[in-house]
Write a structure and sequence with these properties.
Immunoglobulin-like; 42% strand; mainly beta; 1 helix
Length: 211
């Protein structure tokens, strides 16, 4: 009986496909079986806003996900909307650099945001001049531990491309932190997260760049 039902099931799936609905073949629903409609991976384009102040909700504007399937003949779904139920790891009252997970049908990709409890004051201000395109600034790593650094535009709170990294981040295992000035004059916020002995220490700076 089961073998005779397969053509009927396939026909129903074909009708569903022609009608614009996706349909997995029940033949592949046994544990461990290869189902070409299973999602094999996703890749995420992060939202434009990546800097937050305490209490703000996560903004997914301009974020999207590409969804890829196990079957080589199954077309990927590109630029899909990321919804709040896909996202985990954001805490609007946890200061520092947070890694946000986006999970769709069991597959995940990640992006970072920075959350600042209070805006950095003038005591933490770093002023740089763009008299040289390769001008470099160093922040002391007094803990001698691993670190992660991001630079954000103060006004838009978008992440800045840093040293050729499109995600705007830079990291290191030990030693002082050096980075090049952004290529455009303006006000920025630098977020640095230090990790030592299982603890995270955050430091934030104002960055003012002028030509």
């Amino acid at each position: 009986m089961k073998k005779r039902s397969f053509p009927v099931v396939r026909a129903l799936c074909l009708l569903g496909f022609l009608a614009g609905a996706s349909c997995s073949n029940p033949i592949y629903n046994t544990p461990g079986a290869f189902d070409p409609y299973d999602v094999s991976a996703i890749t995420v384009t992060p939202p434009s806003k990546r800097l937050y102040y305490w209490g703000e909700p996560l903004d997914l504007t301009r974020s999207s996900a590409n969804i890829y399937y196990r079957g080589s003949d199954i077309e990927p779904k590109l630029d899909q909307e990321i919804k709040s139920q896909h996202v985990s790891g954001f805490d609007s009252r946890k200061e520092g650099i947070q890694t946000i997970a986006v999970t769709i049908e069991g597959q995940s990709d990640y992006f970072d945001i920075a959350l600042v409890a209070f805006k950095p004051n003038d005591d933490d201000k770093i002023t740089m001049s763009l008299s040289s395109p390769n001008l470099e600034k160093t922040i002391s790593n007094e803990l001698g531990c691993s670190w992660k650094l991001y630079i954000f535009e103060s006004a838009s709170r978008n992440v800045v491309k840093l040293n050729g990294n499109g995600q705007g981040g830079k990291s290191g295992s030990t030693g002082d932190i050096s980075f090049n000035a952004p290529s455009t004059a303006g006000d920025y916020i630098i977020a640095v997260s230090f990790k030592k002995d299982g603890y995270t220490y955050n430091r934030f700076y104002k960055l003012s760049v002028s030509q």
